[in-house]
Design a protein that fits this description.
The chain is an alpha/beta fold and about 300 residues long. The protein has 10 helices and 8 strands. Helix 3 crosses helix 5 and helix 4 packs across helix 5.
Length: about 300
Amino acid sequence: MLSIQQLIDDAKCYETVREIRWPDGVRCSHCDSQKITKRGRHNTDKHRQRYSCGNCACQFDDLSRTIFEGHHQPLKVWILCLYFMGLNLSNRQITAELDLNKDDVQRMTEQLRAGIMSKKKPVNLSGEVEFDEVYVVAGHKGQPNRVAQRGRPGRRRRLKGKRGRGTATTEKPPIFGMVQRGGQVALQMLENVPQVTIRPLIKTIVAVGTQIYTDEYNIYHRLKSWGYKHKTVNHSQGEYARDEDGDGFHEVHVNTMEGIWSLLRSWLRPHRGISQDKLPLYIGFFEFTHNVRQRGQALLPSLLRLLLATP
């Protein structure tokens, strides 16, 4: 496990990157060859090792072809930023902790979240799976042109969505969630949630023949015709769990997914005023951290391992 002392030491930061990126020895970032020769240190960073490949003759270094390459902030600042993101600090809090310009922190966190989104492995679900949807208030913060297109002035107070279900157009986009009991979760922000929108998503992620549990919302009515077993719990009638086989265990419910929505709301709460454009990045980051089942310092190696994985 990484310690905070390692994160503020330049040499140990690079040592950590090398250990995570190349656990079996340095490999060429272009052809993956192990015929590597060290070629001294970087001109402006004495801890950043350079290499030459004996197979393709390419020159590269510890950060070549990674998200940390080509930035003016030192590596330890990026890793500390990622560490604080894993603790779910807001951009404002990270700005204070790192004593940086708020715009720099905004760019760094966006790039890191986008890197996690682009590299995290697809989720595949089977067995017993729950479906549900939640609606998150999200407008177009910091985008005056997008706000003007909606025919209203910019708000001075928090955006308030209408009660009930919404769409991206009404600034209350739905988040569609699928969770395997005892397994992973898949979350996706959508424009809206008609059957034509959710069917391809379900088909991609959930194995045919899986037992699905949902509430009574009519978007789920065709699950059986799509090849799935389907049982519902009727929330509108005050039913939240049902024992169908009389064994004393109330197996028909979507309480697992409801619990994840509670965690997601808590996760989003410090990041006040997330725009629709950025919301998928926050949701994707939450999905990854939930699925690796790690928190705090234990989460950082998993984040680094994903970001440093070979393209």
